[in-house]
Amino acid sequence: FMGLKSISYVSILSPANSAERSALVTFKHEKVPLSDLQNHLNTYKLRTRGVTEGGLSALRVSTHIYNTPDEVDRTIEAVKTAYKG
Question: Counting beta carbons within 10 angstroms of the beta carbon of residue 12, is it exposed (0 to 12), middle (13 to 18) or buried (19 or more)?
Fold first, then answer.
């Protein structure tokens, strides 16, 4: 999810080291509350998981070999359009 790194108001919380990465990407949106972001992504038919343990207030997206590049692009576009500022 390098595309998420290009969004200035998104912080990637998953490991940056390629040896520690997985198909799970956890991130925070600095401008949109977690519940609003999750609802927005639902309108794109994207399933996500909120991560609230320890007051984190982040979102987790899981990609898999069965996901297409178009689905990944749709996820990035959905995150970009969540904030209208």
Answer: middle
Sheet holding 58-62, edge to edge: 10-12, 24-29, 58-62, 49-51
Amino acid at site 22: S
Per the confidence metrics, is the pTM higher than 0.70? Answer: yes
Q: What is the pLDDT of residue 67?
A: 84
Q: Using CB atoms within 10 A of its CB, is residue 29 exposed (0-12), middle (13-18) or buried (19+)? A: buried
Residue of 41, 36, 59, 37 whose CA lies nearest to 49: 59
CB-CB contact of 59 with 51 (8 Å): yes
Distances (CA, A) of 64 to 23, 24, 39: 6, 9, 22
- Which two three-digit tokens encode residue 14? 């998953």
Measure the CA–CA gap between 59 and 74, rounded to whole angstroms.
Answer: 16
